[in-house]
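User: Fold both of these, please.

Assistant: Here is the first one.
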Amino acid sequence: MNDGEQDREADIQGLLRQQAALAQFGELALKGERLDEILTQACRLVGQALGTDLAKVVELQADGQTLLVRAGVGWKPGVVGVATMKLSESSSESHALRTGEPTISANIEDETRFEYADFLKDHGVRAIMNVAILGSEEKAPFGILQVDSREPREFCETDILFLKGYANLLAAAVARFRSLDEMRRKEKELERALVECRHGAEQQNFLARELDHRAKNMLAVLQAALRLTKAQDVPSFVQVLEGRVAALARAQNMLAADRWQGADLFEMLRDELASYLDGSSGPQAELDGPKLMLPATVVQPFSMALHEMATNATKYGALSSQTGRLRVSWKAGEDGVLRLHWVESGGPRLHGPPDRRGFGFRVLTNTLRAQLGGTISMGWEATGLICDLAVPLACTRAP
């Protein structure tokens, strides 16, 4: 094996380690019950994936100016849970939080932009990469994921993309725990109110069961997406996974906005196809149907099905070409069945069904048939995909 082949083999092994770390951490983030444990394991996995001795998560404190080493691996006693850093114009951490982009110092001894904490130098750190762990739109960033190397190192583009995707998963895990803490806080407030008004006991029990049911459904869907998503490389894996998580998040937001009563089908489609409804050269997608509120039990699984169809159209179908067009029409009959007609045209010519059918196809078939009790008919015409969906709205199956 020559040097070039050895380098390629090393790159492949590195990507495999990074994908394995993403998959392991994704499963841990869904199952873990203690945030400190999850943060520590996150540091361990990222250090293994990138081949560094040291890694840490630093948490932004309430004053907005101090970072605490919340978790880490490879550090001497007296660092994790103790060591702090101040945000300033001369700190790389400030730059990472302000820009939202990774900040890298290949050799801190030659660094002229930033100053680094003494405990880093005491541990022999020579190179460092910071990636912000972002919060939601309403929340401040949680902090920063940092990998530290005792050798000077030029982190490559693959390393950067991996760490950004990893930090996004970590942010989702943190958001999950923040949501759980908020839920527990609100539950305590509600319990105090129930002491004063016992007539609300039955309603509270119902809400608690419903919330638990929906949370478990969401986690189950996320776990399936993590396990079944396939990609050729880490950036593709992250992109596909983030798209599926975003589709779930949009469905959750719509349900929450309508107090978990349901969501409007037109709004669901508009959110999913927004960039194709009003493009600079004219719309590529057309929506045609009456205002229709989908029941809460239908919204989440149906949004996933729509996302997979839109993703397929964007990657391989009509929306992958500027000349392509998509028309989606729907109606609800007197029998209480939603019938949706999806027609693609003007894109790449089709030569029949695809040779292989991946996770997206399984989402479509399993969701529509097994979970919603509906039907799906797909025709791969030369001019484009034609798909007919039928979903009963009045009586759906339990997930």
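And the second sequence with its predicted structure:
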Amino acid sequence: MESPDRTVHVAYDPYVIPGGRTIHGRADGLNGEWSVHLGRQTSVEIVAGLTDGLTRPRSAHAPNV
């Protein structure tokens, strides 16, 4: 899956070792390229929370992590 602006890509492949999900972000003017590799046992709630945090606009009260 890709975000609407194509900056975040989420993939699931259970057949590679160790298998699981990869979340990849493209470099833009402010941020460098990055990726996260999550194992097959990572719950979908964790993946959803991570992708929501990456693709939704930040709240005015959100900390700058």
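The chain has one domain: 8-55.
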